C-alpha cells in the first residue's frame, strides 16, 4: 500500500550516488522507484535494498532512448498515478582531457544525449504526474564543471558543455513550471565512484545527503537554483 507515502524516481540508481539516493529516500519513508538501463544490475540493487526492509521497486529506463523514457513514465502512471520527486542522476563522462575543438563529434553527441537530452525528455515525460497534484521536486545532478567560470579552462569539453546546458535548462524550466513544483541543480562535488575514481574527496553517502535536502524542501524552498553542500553556488 502506498497510502500517503511520497513517491520518488531516481535515474541511474543501481550504483554510486544513485544507489545512495534510493537508499536514503527509502529510509526517510519514501516509496522509491530505482531506474537503470541495465535491468539485471537494477534488480540486484533493488533486492539488496529490499533485504534492508526498504520500500524500493524497479523500472527499466535508458535515458538515451526516448521510447524507453516514455514507456517508464507510462508504467509509473499505471502503477502509482503520481510522482512527488524526480532525480536526474544518470550521466556519463567519456571525453577525458581532450579539447573540444579536436574531439570526435560523436563523443559530444553521446555526452549531450545522456547528460542533457536525457534529463530533458525525462522531465517532459514525468512532469504530468506532478502536475496532477500541483506538487513536485525535480533535482538535476550537475557539476561545478558546468559553471560558466569553468569554460575558460581547457579539457573535459563535452562533459562541461553538457552540464552547462543542463544548468541552463534548470533555470529556464523553473520559470515555466507552475504550482508547487520546484526544480534545482546540484553539484555533488568530487565523489568516489566509477565516474569520480577512488581518490575523490567525498563519498556517495555524503553527496546523496546534500541532494536529499532539495527533494524534501517545503513550498518556501528554492526554485531554479544551483547548490553544493546545501548552499548556493555560482552558475
List the defining traits of the structure above.
single chain, alpha/beta, 8-stranded mixed β-sheet, 42% helix, 16% strand, globular
Average pLDDT number? 92
- Apparent shape: globular
Indicate the radius of gyration in whole angstroms. Answer: 17 Å
Describe the biggest sheet? 8 strands, mixed
Tally of structural domains: 1
Helicity range: 40-55%
Low-confidence stretches: none
The fraction of residues in strands falls at 15-25%
Structural class: alpha/beta
Strand order of the largest sheet: 3-2-1-4-5-6-7-8
Task: Walk me through the structure.
With 235 residues, the chain is α/β, with parallel strands linked by helices. The protein has one domain: Rossmann fold, CATH 3.40.50. The chain is 42% helix and 16% strand. It contains 6 helices and 8 strands; from the N terminus they run βαβαβαβαβαβαββ. The protein has helices spanning 16-27, 39-50, 66-80, 105-131, 157-176, 204-215; strands at residues 7-10, 31-36, 56-60, 85-88, 135-141, 180-186, 226-228, 231-232. Strands 3-2-1-4-5-6-7-8 form an 8-stranded mixed sheet, sandwiched between helices. The mean pLDDT is 92. Belongs to the short-chain dehydrogenases/reductases (SDR) family. GO terms for molecular function: oxidoreductase activity, acting on the CH-OH group of donors, NAD or NADP as acceptor.
Amino acid at each position: 500500500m502506498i497510502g500517503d507515502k511520497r513517491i520518488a524516481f531516481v535515474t541511474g540508481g543501481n550504483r554510486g550516488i544513485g544507489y545512495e539516493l534510493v537508499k536514503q529516500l527509502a529510509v526517510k519513508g519514501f516509496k522509491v522507484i530505482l531506474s537503470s538501463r541495465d535491468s539485471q544490475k537494477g534488480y540486484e540493487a533493488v533486492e539488496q535494498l529490499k533485504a534492508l526492509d526498504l520500500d524500493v521497486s524497479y523500472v527499466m529506463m535508458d535515458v538515451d532512448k526516448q521510447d524507453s523514457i516514455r514507456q517508464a513514465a507510462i508504467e509509473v502512471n499505471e502503477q502509482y498515478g503520481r510522482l512527488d520527486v524526480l532525480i536526474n542522476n544518470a550521466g556519463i563522462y567519456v571525453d577525458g582531457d581532450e579539447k573540444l575543438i579536436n574531439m570526435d563529434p560523436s563523443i559530444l553527441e553521446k555526452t549531450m544525449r545522456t547528460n542533457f537530452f536525457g534529463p530533458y525528455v525525462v522531465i517532459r515525460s514525468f512532469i504530468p504526474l506532478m502536475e496532477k497534484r500541483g506538487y513536485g521536486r525535480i533535482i538535476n545532478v550537475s557539476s561545478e564543471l558546468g559553471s560558466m567560470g569553468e569554460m575558460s579552462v581547457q579539457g573535459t569539453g563535452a562533459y562541461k558543455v553538457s552540464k552547462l546546458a543542463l544548468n541552463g535548462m534548470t533555470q529556464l524550466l523553473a520559470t515555466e513550471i507552475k504550482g508547487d513544483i520546484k526544480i534545482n541543480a546540484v553539484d555533488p562535488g568530487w565523489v568516489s565512484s566509477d565516474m569520480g575514481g577512488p581518490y575523490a574527496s567525498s563519498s556517495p553517502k555524503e553527496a546523496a545527503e546534500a541532494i536529499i535536502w532539495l527533494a524534501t524542501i517545503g513550498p518556501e524552498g528554492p526554485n531554479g537554483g544551483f547548490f553544493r553542500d546545501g548552499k548556493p553556488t555560482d552558475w
